C-alpha cells in the first residue's frame, strides 16, 4: 500500500521534555531510506543546497543525512576552488555538470552561491559580477525547477558567540583543526561584511519556486533533526514495498576443495595488545 509521509509534522510545533535526539534521528534516517527507495523507483531528481555561516553545522547535517543511505542515490558535491580553465567558463557551467540524473539526490555543500558570498567579499569576483549573479540566479533556478528537478535551499545561521566557541574548539582539537581554513578565519574577522552580503543574497534570491529556508543552528542537534524533517516533509515521497529476496541455499563445499595454504598478510589485531598491556 502506498502511503504519503510528512516526517516533520511533529518537529518544531512544541518542545517535548521527553525529546530524544538519537531516537528521533534514527526515525528520520529510516524515512530517508524510504525516500531513497522512492527516488530510485520514480526517477525523481532532487537538489538540496546547503549554505550559511562558517561553523554553522552544514557538514554535521549532511553527515547525518548520508549516514544510512547509498552514495549511488545521495551524492554530495563540494567543489574546490575553480581551476584556471573553469575560471574562463560561464560561471554556472561547472555546477550544471553536477545536477542530478533520474533517481539521484544531489547535495551541494556550498554551491553557486559562493559568488555573492565569499567570492564577492574576498575579491575573487567584481561587485558588478556579483550583482549580475543575484539578478540571474532566480531565472537559472526557475529553469532547473521547470525541468522537473525538486530544488531545496537551506541557509544555516549561528550567533557570533557560538561561532567563536566552535572556532576555538577547532583550534584546540587536533581532530578538528583541518576544519579551520584561512577563509574561515577571514569570515570571523569580517562578520558584518558577510552579514550584509548574505542579507542581500537572501532577499534577492528567495523566490516562490526556490525559497530559502533558514535553519537556526546554535543547537546543532536540533538543527539536524529540524532540517532533515523539513527535507522529508518537502518531498512528496511514498513508501515503496521492499521486495524480500529469496536467498536460496548455499552450494555445498566441493569434495575436492583443499584450503589454500599459501602465506597471507593478516591485519594485526591491536585490541589483543591493548588487552595485555603491550
Would you give an account of this structure?
Uses inorganic polyphosphate (polyP) as a donor to convert GDP to GTP or ADP to ATP. The protein has one domain: Rossmann fold (3-Layer(aba) Sandwich), CATH 3.40.50.300. The protein contains 11 helices and 5 strands, in the order H-E-H-E-H-H-E-H-H-E-H-H-H-E-H-H. The protein is globular, with a radius of gyration of 23 Å. It is α/β, with parallel strands linked by helices. The longest helix is centred in the first third of the chain and has 22 residues, at 21-42.
Low-confidence segments, given as residue ranges, are 1-5, 7-14
Radius of gyration: 23 Å
Alpha-carbon distance between the termini? Answer: 58 Å
What's the mean pLDDT score? 92
Strand content: 5-15%
Major beta-sheet overview:
5 strands, parallel
Secondary-structure element sequence?
HEHEHHEHHEHHHEHH
The beta-strand count equals 5
Level-1 CATH class name? Alpha Beta
GO molecular function: polyphosphate kinase activity
Protein name: ADP/GDP-polyphosphate phosphotransferase
Subunit structure: Homotetramer.
EC number: 2.7.4.-
Sequence-ordered SSE layout with sheet pairings:
Elements: H1 21-42, E1 45-52, H2 58-66, E2 74-77, H3 84-87, H4 93-96, E3 104-109, H5 115-121, H6 127-146, E4 150-157, H7 160-172, H8 182-189, H9 191-205, E5 212-216, H10 220-234, H11 270-275
Parallel strand pairs: 1-3, 1-4, 2-3, 4-5
Helix pairs in contact: 1-10, 2-10, 5-6, 5-9
